[in-house]
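Supplementary notes for students who missed Thursday's class. We covered one full example, reproduced here. Read the sequence, then the structure, then the short commentary at the end.
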Amino acid sequence: MSEVMAYVGLGANLEDPVAQVTAGMAALAVLPRTRLVAQSSLYRTAPVGYAEQPDFINAVAAVKTALGARELLDALLATEQHHGRVRTFPNAPRTLDMDVLLYGDAQMHEDGLTIPHPRMHERAFVLVPLAEIAPRCVIPGRGAVSELLRGIDVSGVVRIENPVHAI
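Structure (token representation):
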């Protein structure tokens, strides 16, 4: 299989979120048949959905991978589990969350895997870091990231200048 450009969203708000997201990036860099080609800055964002929890640290990574979309998702889920992710309820606090946002220009919906990631086009915590590393990126079926950013409130997404001392 030839390589596909994929984008992965990372987020955490428990157990030193900066370290968790940084470790998630490092895990991406060592996935088999995968190369980490870009990573965004880290961003502090307010929780979405369930608001009674700590702020999140979010980022987006670009990888070139020969893994299939399902294989990539399985590797991300294994990394989450390795970092103590427990799924208690939707939008719950978490040690590490890793999502396949885009996989080439694929559009698919399978059990447990929808690409492009649902609602990513509405979420500033995804679009802001994605635009940082891929300003010309287009979300299949939704449009250019730069255009989508114009239609949402990005005021709650704050770039962390010195991530080591962020929390």
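Commentary. The helical segments are 17-29, 69-82, 124-133, 145-150. The mean pLDDT is 93. If anything here is unclear, bring it to office hours.
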